[in-house]
Amino acid sequence: MKYLYYFSIFAIILLVSCGEKEQSDGDIVENGSKAELKQKRETLNKKIRDLNSQIKQLDKKLSNFEDTSKYALVEALELKPKDFKHYVKVQGDVTTDQNIMIYPEFSGVLESIFIKEGDEVKKGQKLAKIDDGGQSSQLAEMEARLDLAETRFERQKRLWDQNIGSEIQYLEAKTAFEQIKNSVAQMRSQLNKSVIYAPFDGKVDEIITDQGQVVSPGQTPIFRLLNLGEMYVSANVPETYVGSIQEGSEAIVSLRALGKSFVGKVTQVSSNISESNRNFRVRVGIPDSIDFVKPNLIATLKLNDYVAKDAIVIPENILQENASGESFTFALEMENDSIGKANFRELKLGKNYKGEIEILSGLEASDIVITEGARTVKKDDKVRVLNFQKD
Fold first, then answer.
1. What are the residue boundaries of the CzcB-like barrel-sandwich hybrid domain, all occurrences included (predicted)?
2. Which of 149, 209, 241, 333 sits at a 20 to 30 Å CA gap from 362?
3. 221 and 238 in a common domain
4. Distance CA 366, CA 54 (A)
């Protein structure tokens, strides 16, 4: 009522002061040129702006006479657009594709071990030798017979080329040579399996079988060989996130046992969803700068599945619900620096993360929301703002 009273006084003053010019103003409206009309409009707009400014000053002064002690005391926050990210948290473990148990391909006694635990080895390097049980001697005899068969075949071929001798003699010599040649190749291949070679560059992590023991193919593990140069974190992700987590998605990885974390990228997403747990697997590479990483180390991953640019975000704890389960909050219409009116705002919510929630509708940038004390506030209540902060 006080505001209306002062506004009426100003209106009367304005009418009195302009009374003498009312007739000329009417003439301008009726008969004025375009330029005169635009000029008149600008004059009136300026007067309106001046009046609004004076009213605001009056409101500010009048508020000093109001009894604000009865107003609820609140804290408020001015909203600003910002980028909002949501992450899904999953457990994973450190692994490498080059972490294998080496089994023999040849049966016999483990005759020699050429390396020791902890040695760095190169691809193709000899690791151990299995006793061949005399097969190397058999190979020497077969190679001697091969030389003889080759000599006979070459001689018979020369005679056949000169039309000397029968075709059957030539073919018999050729067949005998090829047969023993194949047998020698097979024996060499078999004997080559008696030597165990490193399948890739890596480190001998464990020697499992002692020298002198009898070993069998596929049954007796001899070494564990691994390469720590290409470690990665592997994790299962629920199928709910198919399409929202892709190659290149941001990943925050925590290795709790090492007390270290890093920000990486998803380097691989499996194309298959497991029937047993309805999950798909993702892979995140581990940078070389992280020391002491070992296979099977537990890792926690936060995978970025959603990004909103210039989003409106508020603290999740200021949300309230009505009887229908709809979320709402109060935005302030400030009368001065410390007094405001609580406007009811029904909200449409987005994703939430780390105590913040995205507002899809109901609030706008530069709105001022109540952060503390809103539980005691009702729609259109006036409040005192104790702590007004900008987001």
1. 101-218
2. 241
3. no
4. 24
